[in-house]
Amino acid sequence: MKKYLVICLGIVSTACFSQGKPRESLDPIPTEIWDLVPKVVTPAVNVGDAPSDAIVLFDGKSLSNWTNKDGAMYSVKGVGAIKTKQKFGDVQLHIEWRTPSTVIGDSQGRGNSGIFLQGLYELQVLDSYENPTYSNGQAGSIYKQAIPLVNVCRKPGEWQTYDVIYVAPRFTDGGRVITPATITVLQNGVLVQNNFTIWGPTNYKGLPVYQPHGKASLELQDHNNPVGFRNIWVREL
User: Fold this and answer.
1) Given this model, what pLDDT does residue 70 score?
2) Please, are residues 40 and 183 in contact by the beta-carbon 8 Å criterion?
3) Using an 8 Å Cβ cutoff, are 154 and 160 in contact?
4) Could you tell me if 108 and 119 are in contact, meaning their C-beta atoms sit under 8 angstroms apart?
5) How far apart are CA 127 and CA 227, in angstroms?
């Protein structure tokens, strides 16, 4: 019986290795795609600067792309939310922000602002350098939903970066969610949100519930703390 088993296994093994044509004899052409050519985008010379197809929302000079601005791109405090005139869906976003070098307050009262994708889904901005607070409310969190993977905040007064890939939610004509929003975030070049599925609009109290919507503005929150922003650009995806 043992000899029979060994012989059978040997026959099966030989058959497995002999099936199909040798890879060297296959024609590579059927697996080559030539007629779908990606468009050419010129990357920026400096890391963090806008590539050639980006929409520059703030370059340190003109505030023409924003409403309710009053110079507040440099210090978001006491003027209400600042939002873009243009409305967006899926985007790649680059934005730089800075909390005050002089530390005033603690927890959520220290350098607090927020970046609202489509005016609804908040990526938290906060001075989280040696500043304990609830974890799903610190910098790099999707506010009250997703804790950042790591805390990579720089010291107060230093410029920080967010690079975001955001995919907007899809709804049926009747208003039901087909696919929820997702977000990936790198803070200061480090991954802090990895394709997180957003539960719904940001709420301070209660659970989030999706409501159907289309493209909407990018908003910067006024949380009565002075927070600076610069070098803001997006690529529509």
Assistant:
1) 55
2) no
3) yes
4) no
5) 10
